[in-house]
Amino acid sequence: MSAPSAISEADGSFTLRRIPLTGVGLALFRTSVAPDTVAVPDGVDTVTVYGLVVPVALPAVVISAMERPIARERFEAEAQPSIVTLVAADIRRAPAILEADVVRVVQYLPGSVAKNDYSIGYNVRGGESDQNLIQLDGITIFNPSHLAGLFSTFDANAVARTDFYSGGFPAGYPGRLSSVLDIGLRTGNTERIGVNGQVSLLSSKVLVEGPAWGRATWLASVRRTYADALVGLLSSEVLPYYFTDALGKVTMPYGRRGSLAVTGYWGRDVLDLELVKATATRESQRLAFNWGNALLGATWRLPVGSRALLETRAGVSTFSTALGLRPSLAEFTNSARLYTAQTTFMPAPEARHDVRLGAAVESYSMDYAVRSLALETDLFQAHYEPTVWSAFAEDQWRAARWLLLRPGARVDYVRGTGKAHFSPRFSFKTFLSSRDAVQGSVGRYHQAIHSIRDQEIPVTIFEFWIGADEYIPVARSDHVVLGYERWFGNNIQLTVEGYRKTFANLVTPNRAQDIRLEGDEFIPAEGDAWGGDVLLRKHAGALRGWIAYGYTRAIRRSQGVEFPPAHDRRHTLNVIAFLPGPIGSDMGFRFGLGSPLPYTGFIGQWDHRIYDAATHRFSDYEEEPISAGINSLRYPAYTRLDVSFRWRFERWGGQWEPYLQVANVYNRKNPFLYIFDFGDAPPTRTGVSQIPLLPTFGVEFWF
Amino acid sequence: MRLPSLPLLPFLPFCLAACELTEVTVAPGDPRVIVQAVLSAGEPMQFVVVERSLTGEIPAGGTDDAIPPGEPRLPITGAAVMLEHLGPSPCATPALTLVPSAMGRGVYETSGFCGLEPRDRVRLTVTTPDGEVVTGTTTVPGARTVSVRLATDSATTPGQVLQLDRQRDTLRIGVDPILARAMQVEVRWREDPDEVAVYLFTDTLGVALPGNLVNPFEGGDDGRPVFEVGREYSLTVAVTDTNYYDFVRSRSDPFTGRGFLNHLEGGIGVFGSVAAYTYVLRVVR
Question: Is any Cβ of chain A less than 8 angstroms from the Cβ of B86?
Answer without folding.
Answer: no
